[in-house]
């Protein structure tokens, strides 16, 4: 597969991954290498990675963090910064983030802020990180239950996508990443959406290609609008409500913690319903979207008493301006519209629509 050039980095795939990594290390000769993993990737991915790494005599340290979204915090960053300092990391050190979206988001933020910035490389091991989290330079951590409230936009040196790491994933994590791919189709490409919702016509050998296509879509958007002034906002379709649901369920001990993709799947259905009220999305398209998403994602039980709490969480969405919640909505499948204002009444109607879906 041909490598994809971003604004200031390159995304390499499969056969090129370790050739490019080792060539980079040989050429740049970092003073030390730090590898950030979580408890899962330490056991399941690190041995393979280390077997391919040609680090020569360069001091190399592995740092392990707990797995899961609830550990994507500034406290964990503090631990990583302190470990790097204790092992003598300097501005010529290299940080390699080997893991899913939590590891690449947090590790990227650590690199961007340690000594005001050191080089880093993302090696995503989950589908979500491959198609979304690791690409585009968004780094950061959560603030309590609020998603990605602290961070910077700054690309690493490269992203290395080795799809064989997907063999280590449980099914629910694969499904979670699929939500972002569906989003890419909904906001930019009806044909891609159609491909993803008819995967019964594909075999496993097609997986690499649809991952590649998703990275191309995201990179095209990010390259045109790297700091999210206009077009890049479309990547937040499904996330205004989806992130609020994810945060509310994470904070509420009575609720099952949702994977990111599970929450975003709900958000995309609700925001598609809202699109029929605000942007003229057809009811036929709404039905197609709802059915396409529910082919893969089970419905999430959201009680009526939860609605106002979820709406409250939307006030912290990063697209908001002057206290007004701003949505990304759909005019049609493959065509998104940014900066849409939506009344609470319509949001509540969307929850009712979702509840009544079979």
TrEMBL record:
Its EC number is 4.2.3.4. InterPro entries: Dehydroquinate_synthase, DHQ_synth_AroB, DHQ_synth_fam, DHQS/DOIS_N, DHQS_C. NCBIfam families: aroB. This is 3-dehydroquinate synthase. Pfam families: DHQ_synthase, DHQS_C. Its cofactor is Co(2+); NAD(+). It comes from the Bacteria. One of its GO terms (molecular function) is 3-dehydroquinate synthase activity. Residues 63-174 form the 3-dehydroquinate synthase N-terminal domain. Gene3D superfamilies: 3.40.50.1970, Dehydroquinate synthase-like - alpha domain. It comes from Winogradskyella litorisediminis. Residues 177-320 form the 3-dehydroquinate synthase C-terminal domain. CDD domains: DHQS (cd08195). The keyword Ribonucleoprotein does not apply. Catalyzes the conversion of 3-deoxy-D-arabino-heptulosonate 7-phosphate (DAHP) to dehydroquinate (DHQ). Keywords: Cobalt, Lyase, Metal-binding, NAD, Nucleotide-binding, Zinc.
